[in-house]
């Protein structure tokens, strides 16, 4: 790779994961010269496109991805209904796309496919892409940021955007930090009675189990995100396929009949890790670099894409005034970020609680959500679009 020792850029984006890449594309739509935008990633695209993680993309995120020409209908499975319940307890709620006049409440897409589509869209612009090379540190100066790469190169940019993402288990601890004592097991599973386009979120004492409708090699099945205690996760992962499917059935219940096959299981430690502030002078943080959430209700990437959208607006309006840019970005993100962090922080803790009043209240809350359309609509809108 031919890397100059120093370069001048308007913006250096550190991390070309889904949030960094989408941010670059949204920015390029109106930026006078995309060759003044640097995009740096420590991985080669082939490594990211191998990631088998399945992600639920909200209706709002789909609109954003469509806008930057990174949306391919055939790589995504639509969600028309979401069924929320609590194992062994009274109460459940259904969210249906017909109530919201949208083609789908959301879509399920493989992380690797999404990154591939975003990379193809990046080719449309003359971005300065550096990879595989990691950002080592950033030094703010009066008029710019010096972005130090681990190959010894230094990029000078007016602004640096942290989009290095990461997982709870691999990140340095930030100001708002909570370890849920849960691990997510992921796999693709098939079952005897699949219900097309229906996603299931089932709360259990160990943590929520999500089954997201998904197609794999023309087979209708579900992307599983099974959150449980780390010691249970280790035991479940060590089981052979048949034993694993039986354990899943015992925990999820009989709504989809017997589970019939499962692909290789992967484990992700879960926690909340969020920065107190996501703007500091000439540096901004978006996506998982700003906040890593519990995957309950599938919010992390969706929130990150909304961060990206707001930062583009702030930079466009106040490029020459970092202070204004900070204020505009922070106030645009405040409500949505807080609401989404709270939702994903409360849900796993409330449903895991063994306190009697909490047990009684959460069953009633699910029934109430079903009986009170305004409350259900509020939850559905948060899941589809966040707070804007
Ligand atoms: C099990 C599980 C299920 C999930 N399900 C959902 C879901 O259903 N819906 C949802 O919205 N979210 C979900 N998420 C969260 C979602 O995966 C993340 O929010 C999303 O991947 C964040 O994207 P990002 O681009 O910010 O970070 P990442 O995806 O982590 O990408 C960061 C990029 O930065 C690069 N990088 C890292 N360090 C450096 C460095 N120093 N220098 C240069 N480059 C660097 C990396 O190579 C990578 O390409 C889930 C997460 C997990 C673990």
Describe the protein's architecture and organization.
- With 388 residues, this protein is an alpha+beta fold.
- It has two domains: 245 residues, FAD/NAD(P)-binding domain; 89 residues, D-Amino Acid Oxidase, Chain A, domain 2.
- The chain contains ten helices and 20 strands.
- Strands 5, 6, 12, 13, 14, 15, 16, 17 and 20 form a nine-stranded mixed beta sheet that branches.
- α1 links the parallel β1 and β2.
- α1 packs parallel to α4, α1 packs parallel to α7 and α7 packs antiparallel against α8.
- The chain is globular.
- The two termini are 42 Å apart.
- The relative contact order is 0.17.
- The structure holds flavin-adenine dinucleotide.
